[in-house]
């Protein structure tokens, strides 16, 4: 038992419990299928003590789903969860498109490892946008960053704050820039590309 | 433009000790020597009507040295205090209500961007619902600028003790940029700069003399900011 207690002292575990606010934006006139792969909904990041001060485990999956649920519900006129691209293609009335986010990379730095003296978190999401027939329209990589000071908080609390800020950063980028993506404008919003000067 | 300057307030420990009698030194021994400077620059007349409030935010870490979270909380508490207390909307409540427009990456970079932001669907209404008249952006930091000396402690069968002297200097420098949402303009800036020297002399027992520069900067900035916001006088 003592060994187990000593072992737990050498590991840090973070699960993101905070809710995410819905964006204050005008919804796009689109009916969109939302596909969450298991790799997103159950995402867990683990880093061994060899590169960090101790073992770190970050459970991001449920928070990913809450984040994108809040984001997509405001970004699009209507959304519906789908389990596969094939199921989405059978939808009646048809979707305008299907969107599927995934975590491409997760990294962090601890106060002792960075010049800022703060916990820093980087997350890169890939946002795959499909046409209603399942053809990939675009894979949009969204890189997000969050940082948090220690301010007397535990390392786990500072890490959670930095992760939440990084996730909000990703959601903010998608909320503001999704409709500006050239492929999205052309294929989903059916806007005619403007000639560059 | 109004430029009001109050400087420097020097608070040497040695000057304060005799005034407070024999019981006080042990309390004051926890205080080092500090100098503070507070400046205010007002561009437009300010003032708060009934029901109006402010929000105090850390400047974006993408654009410089954002003030620490605990410093933002401290200044917010100071602005809420006193006879001319100001209603302060909590930072998280504001950023959640206005998400995604006040995140570190998306927040407006200058007051000139306010008209465009307020024209976005729902933004002006949401700000009005919260009664927010001013946004205050805090940037700055507390840094160790110098230090030296040595202090060593030893313990043995007959007892223990410490000998030596160690010292360091901290500089707490913060700016508060005030934006007026009603006039969609830059109302001005309040800044506080506190320099302090801390030391721990030890002759058997170490006696810490700590200059709490960040705390002093918070109090100075909070007090001046409260005056800046509530004093309806025109800029001079």
General description of the model:
The complex is a heterodimer of chains A (197) and B (236). Chain A has helices at residues 2-9, 38-41, 61-75, 85-89, 155-177, 182-187; strands at 11-15, 28-35, 44-47, 55-59, 76-82, 97-109, 119-130, 136-148. Helix content of chain A is 31%, strand content 34%. Chain A is of the alpha/beta class. In chain A, a hairpin with a 7-residue loop joins strand 3 (44-47) and strand 4. Chain B has helices spanning 13-16, 25-28, 69-80, 91-97, 114-118, 123-129, 213-230, and strands at residues 2-11, 33-42, 53-58, 88-89, 132-156, 159-180, 185-206. Chain B has a 7-stranded mixed β-sheet. Chain B is elongated, with a radius of gyration of 22 Å. Chain B starts with a strand and ends in a 6-residue tail after the last helix. The chains are: A alpha/beta (197), B alpha/beta (236). At the A-B interface, helix 5 of A face loops of B.
Would you summarize the structure shown here?
Chain A is of the alpha/beta class and 197 residues long. Chain A has helices spanning 2-9, 38-41, 61-75, 85-89, 155-177, 182-187; strands at residues 11-15, 28-35, 44-47, 55-59, 76-82, 97-109, 119-130, 136-148.
Query: Ends of chain A: how far apart?
Result: 71 Å
Average residue-wise pLDDT of chain B: 85
- Rg of chain B: 22 Å
What structural category do the secondary elements of chain B indicate? alpha/beta
Count of beta strands of chain B? 7
What pattern of helices and strands is seen along the backbone of chain A? HEEHEEHEHEEEHH
Number of helices of chain B: 7
| Assembly annotation | heterodimer
Placed side by side, the strands forming the largest sheet of chain B appear as 1-2-7-6-5-3-4
Instruction: Name the pair of protein chains with the most residues at their interface, and give those residue counts.
Output: A-B, 20 and 19 residues
The SS-based structural class of chain A is: alpha/beta
Give the overall silhouette of chain B: elongated
Q: What's the helical proportion of residues of chain A?
A: 25-40%
- Supply the CATH superfamily name of chain A: Lipoprotein like domain
- The main sheet of chain A orders its strands as 5-2-6-7-8
Radius of gyration of chain A: 19 Å
Annotation, overall tally of beta strands of chain A: 8
Poorly predicted runs of 5 or more residues of chain A: 1-8
> Which range does the strand content of chain A fall in?
25-35%
Termini gap of chain B: 5 Å
Residue windows where pLDDT falls under 50 for at least 5 positions of chain B: 5-29
């Amino acid at each position: 038992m003592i060994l187990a207690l000593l072992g737990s002292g050498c590991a840090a575990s973070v699960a993101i419990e905070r809710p995410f606010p819905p964006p204050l934006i005008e919804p796009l006139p689109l009916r969109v299928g939302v596909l969450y792969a298991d790799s997103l909904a159950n995402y867990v990041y683990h880093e061994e003590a060899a590169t960090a001060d101790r073992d770190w485990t970050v459970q991001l999956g449920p928070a990913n789903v809450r984040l994108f649920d809040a984001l997509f519900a405001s970004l699009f006129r209507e959304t519906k969860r789908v389990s596969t691209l094939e199921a989405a293609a059978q939808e009646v009335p048809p979707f305008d498109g299907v969107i599927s986010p995934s975590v491409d990379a997760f990294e962090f730095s601890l106060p002792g490892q960075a010049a800022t003296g703060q916990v820093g978190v980087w997350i890169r999401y890939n946002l795959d946008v499909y046409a209603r027939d399942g053809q990939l329209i675009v894979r949009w990589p969204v890189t997000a960053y969050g940082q948090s000071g220690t301010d007397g908080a535990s390392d786990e609390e500072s890490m959670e704050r930095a992760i939440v800020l990084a996730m909000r950063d990703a959601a903010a980028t998608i909320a503001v820039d999704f409709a500006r993506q050239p492929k999205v404008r052309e294929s989903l919003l059916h806007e005619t590309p403007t000639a560059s000067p | 433009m109004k430029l009001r300057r109050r400087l420097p307030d020097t608070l040497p420990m040695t000057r304060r000790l005799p005034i407070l009698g024999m019981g006080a030194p042990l309390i004051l021994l926890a205080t080092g020597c500090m100098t503070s400077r507070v400046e205010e620059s007002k561009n437009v007349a300010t003032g708060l009507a009934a029901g109006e409030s402010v929000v105090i935010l850390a400047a974006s870490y993408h654009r410089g040295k954002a003030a620490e979270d605990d410093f933002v909380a401290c200044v917010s508490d100071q602005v809420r205090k006193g006879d001319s207390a100001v209603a302060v909307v909590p930072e998280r409540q504001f950023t959640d209500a206005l998400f995604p427009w006040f995140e570190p990456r998306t927040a407006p970079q200058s007051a000139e961007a306010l008209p465009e932001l307020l024209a976005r669907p729902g933004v002006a209404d949401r700000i009005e619902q919260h009664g927010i008249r001013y946004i205050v952006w805090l940037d700055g930091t507390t840094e160790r600028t110098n230090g030296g000396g040595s202090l060593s402690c030893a313990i043995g069968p007959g007892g223990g003790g410490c000998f030596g002297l160690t010292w360091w200097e901290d500089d707490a420098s913060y700016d508060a940029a005030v934006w007026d949402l009603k006039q969609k303009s830059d109302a001005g800036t309040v800044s506080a700069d506190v320099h302090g020297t801390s030391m721990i002399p030890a002759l058997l027992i170490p006696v810490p003399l700590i200059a709490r520069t960040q705390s002093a900067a918070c109090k100075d900035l909070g007090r001046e900011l409260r005056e800046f916001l509530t004093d309806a006088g025109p800029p001079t």
